[in-house]
Amino acid sequence: MIFSFSNSSIQKINIEINQTDIFCFFYLENAIFVPEKLLLQAVVASLKMKKNVLILEEHFGDISALDTSKRWQAEGEFLWLAPRSLSVLLEARHEISDSYKCMKNYLFSRK
Q: What pTM value is reported for the model?
């Protein structure tokens, strides 16, 4: 499924990855809108359902940059999480708060 944290600035992406929920900080026509304040809850729900999570800050076209062998990958314009990263997120829930930037920085520092 594709989820969007925005309801303006329409963009189109053509990304489909098996067993992966995609969250975007830009609006997509067929995306389900989720308020940004629910980011952590939505991501945790996807991971609990054993789905990978790809969070896109901007349009992302190079899926080959994803390394699915890792628990997570924090790069310039995206954050990719495998279901096995859930324990780390839940362990640091108070440090991360509901901020995407805090979540990404925390995971990047834990590499």
A: 0.85
Other C-beta atoms lying within 10 Å of the C-beta of residue 10: 11
Query: What phi and psi, each to the nearest 5 degrees, are found at residue 92?
Result: -105, 20
For residue 37, what are its two tokens? 């304040």
Its sign, for the CA torsion 7, 13, 14, 16, is negative
Q: Is the dihedral of CA 34, 30, 49, 22 positive or negative?
A: negative
Beta carbons of 100 and 108 less than 8 angstroms apart = no
pLDDT tens per residue across span 45-86: 999 999 999 998 887 666 667 888 899 998 778 899 999 999
User: If 0-12 CB within 10 Å is exposed, 13-18 middle and 19+ buried, where does residue 25 land?
Assistant: middle
In eight-state DSSP terms, residue 4 is E
Angle at 106 between CA 40 and CA 36, to 5 degrees: 25
Cβ-based neighbours of 18, under 8 Å, separated by 6 or more: none
